[in-house]
Amino acid sequence: MTGTGAAAPRTGWPAISGVVRRLPEYMTIWVPLLLSAAHLVSFSLWTIWISFTPSTLVPVSGWVGLRNYTAVMASRNWKIAFDNLLLFGSAFVLLSLVTGLILAILLDQRIRGENVLRSIFLYPLAVSFVVTGTVWSWLLNPGLGIQKLVHDLGWTSFRFDWLVDRDMAIWTIVIAAIWQSSGFAMALFLAGLRSVDADIIKAAQIDGAGPIRTYWRVILPTLWPITITVVVVQLQFAISAFDLVRALTNGGPGIATQLPALVVYDLMFQRSQLGRGAAAAVLMLLILLVVLLPYAAWRYVQRRRATHA
Amino acid sequence: MPITTTRRRLLAGSAAALALPAFARAQSAVKPRLTAISQWSAGSDGAAITALGKKFEEKGGIWQHSPVPGFTTEMMNKLRAQIIAGDPPACSQLKGPEIAAWSKIAPTVNLDALVAAAGYEKVVAPDLARLHKPEGKWISLPLQIYSTNMLFLSKRAMDKAKADKIPVTWADFNDLAEKMKAGGITYPIANGGTRPDDGQKFEASFAGISPASYRAAIMNLDKKALEGPEIKAAFAQVRKIANWMDPNVGAQPYATNLKRFVDGDMGMMIQGGWAQGVLRNAGFKFDDFIIAPGPSDNSRPVFLLNADAFIFWQRKEPDLQAGQTLMAQLVMDPAIQTMYSQITGSIPVRTDVDLSGDGWSDGQRRTAAALKDAVANNQAVLSLAHNMAQENGLTAAMIDVLTEYVKNKTITPEQAVTRLAEAVEGSR
User: Fold this and answer.
1) Does B260 touch chain A if contact means CB atoms closer than 8 Å?
2) CB contact under 8 A, B248 and A250
3) Minimal Cβ distance to A272: which of B392, B401, B403
4) A173 falls in which pLDDT band (50, 70, 90)?
């Protein structure tokens, strides 16, 4: 076995020797890639298949058509989860984008202690969502956290009870999620800001543009690609959000802060309705595709334009 | 340390000598071994199952219990994984209609002979027995019973309200709550805000207003009863209870409020009998609180049954089979049931256990008396909130409606009735 490998280069077959020499590379790239692709695809296909079966406690074969889908989409839980996703997804993405951008612009002013500040803003990203959720659930609990602190300081009419207010509870998740991930947006934006050609900025200054105008007309337009990346990354997080909500509100008060991932877990593992859970999971996948397909199309168009130019 | 070693050897030697007869017996057959899973890991539940394990070991068995902390559904996920892998535990916790549902996906052990030998069937409430012998064969054994609608009264809160009468009907209950409020207790109700807790508020209200209507609507899913006046009245009562609770409770478990309850800052709690075990385990005394059957409008006790049970899964290994036999005998043993219930605060499944002894509390005696009374008057019904009345999927769909109703005060009782009926329809 080893003999042929060692003999190959000496016999002078350059093509084969090249393949043998690059075998470790192929092994490290293609084997894991194929394995994970097979994993991903096979389990997705399996979930899709389960979603058309009457499975309850354990997977069973059989065909029920779209019954699981209609049942999930007709359920109040799913409707609430879907509305919440629209609200949470757009509010979270927009606000974390704005917060991240503002932080990045402020840090970009060549201030002292930039490294320390950058670490502070990035740090929440290193904390798991469960920890974030638990800590914020204490901070936001009116009987324990911020409201109690302000009351104890003497302002007794102060009210901040969003966590137990079913109309506002979804915003507590937005707050915690922004705290966690605006640092990520900041880091990307900061890198973008730093990569703007200094000559262009100088040219703008020579033309008499103030700092605000420079940012607005010259620097920010170059950040487009980064913005799109941030939006896509944050959106897929928003759609698959689970641990944060589970720790922070657990879908409550009542079922006011349900999100699709919670519904999937609930159906599969709390209610023993595997078929419906799988249907909900497939619906989540479809929602993700709604986000990812336009992104892929946009990337494609960009690349075409780049090669044509 | 030579001295200690000798002493240890001496001890080991004498232990071996004592164990000789047991060893001789074990030679003739295999050593019984039991693999078991349950959700009981900590507190009084954990202590009780550990004590049961000790008894199992005293009888010469090997006890291999793997607790899965959390709700019962978490334990079920492990059970499901083990069954799919073809390696079920010899015995697992399971209860209510789930016993019948799960027994369809993996073979179970027929315990009829053991049950007959122990004369167990005669001493188990018939409604309960039925749940544990789907298709007529005993495959699981109930271990302990709780009522989910016990009324816990804080003695200090009663003093503040200058009240000494235990409420019997919902009208009495509401009066007492108002009195407590007038006596300076801002939140007369000390319940938590978890899903089962919200479900309990509803089932206690509904069954207390009309056990017959509860049986028809919740247990038999009768369409007319699901939209009847009794269920509407129950939702109205739940709203009253919700309004007397601390709004900051969110999704906290009831145990968060126990100290405020004992201190008299909160007055009453509608909870399962297990709260007695939790209160005792937290260091509170029997003098701190009173336990009575939950309010019932016809003044006779209504018992919302919740029973923990073990189901036995078929295994080929002779040692596991011997372990299953030993475990079944232990679970049915009145002395074991006494030991178990005295730790957890439940009452024994066996109706022939004498509760007059020292180890029992007044609350447990009242609970046992209430069960007897309720069974005689057909007022013992199965708990919805604790998965005794319906399978998990349907239960969860109904509790969605209940927990949302408790938290959202703009939903009217009429709307809640419609939503509950819709949830039942959508889930079937």
Assistant:
1) no
2) no
3) B392
4) very high
CATH of the domain at B51: 3.40.190.10
Residues B168 and B46 in one domain: no
Dihedral sign computed on CA atoms, order B247, B248, B250, B252: negative
Mean pLDDT of B335-354: 92
Q: State how far the Cα of B51 lies from the Cα of A133, in Å rounded to an integer.
A: 37
Verify whether the Cβ–Cβ distance A74 to B426 is below 8 Å: yes
Q: What is the mean pLDDT of residues B412-422?
A: 95
Least-confidence region, from A183-187, B6-10, B142-146, B419-423: B6-10
For the beta carbon of residue A19, count every other beta carbon within 10 angstroms: 12
For residue A220, being part of any structural domain is answered with yes
Q: What is the pLDDT of residue A305?
A: 87
Tokens of A276: 């419906």
* Average pLDDT score over chain B: 90
**Interchain proximity B250–A141, CB inside 8 Å:** yes
Which residues are registered as beta bridge partners of B145?
A: B307, B347
Domain that residue B132 falls in: 31-145+306-348
Nearest by CB to A164, which of B83, B102, B248? B248
pLDDT tens per residue across span B167-192 = 999 999 999 999 999 999 999 999 99
Q: Is the CB of residue B388 less than 8 Å away from at least one CB of chain A?
A: no
Q: Is B70 part of the contact surface with chain A (CB cutoff 8 Å)?
A: no
What distance in Å separates residue B324's CA from the closest CA in chain A?
A: 24
Q: Which two tokens stand for residue B261?
A: 């309850």
Q: Please give the residue range of the domain that contains residue A248.
A: 76-308
Nearest-CA distance B298 → chain A (Å): 31
Number of domains in chain A: 1
* Interface contact flag, B250 A76, Cβ < 8 Å: no
When pLDDT is averaged across residues A22-30 and rounded to a whole number, the result is 87
When comparing pLDDT for A51 and A21, which is higher?
A: A51
Binary contact (B251, A250; C-beta < 8 A)? yes
Q: Say what the pLDDT of residue A12 is.
A: 54
Helices B229-243, B170-182: axis angle to 10 degrees equals 20
> Is A62 inside a domain boundary?
no
In a domain, A60, yes or no: no
Rounded to whole angstroms, how far apart are CA atoms B407 and B404?
5
Domain with A108 in it: what CATH number?
1.10.3720.10
Q: Do B250 and A253 touch (CB under 8 A)?
A: yes
Closest CA to A175 of A146, A195, A201: A146
For residue B78, what is the nearest residue in chain A, using CA coordinates? A269
A191-240: pLDDT as tens digits? 998 888 888 888 888 888 888 888 888 888 888 889 988 998 999 889 88
Q: Do B407 and A252 touch (CB under 8 A)?
A: yes
**Chain A residue nearest residue B196, CA to CA:** A254
A209-217's contacts with Cβ under 8 Å and 24+ in sequence apart are A215/A105
pLDDT for the residue numbered A11: 53
Interchain proximity B73–A143, CB inside 8 Å: no
Q: What percent of chain A has pLDDT over 90?
A: 40
- Asked whether residue A139 is domain-assigned, the answer is yes
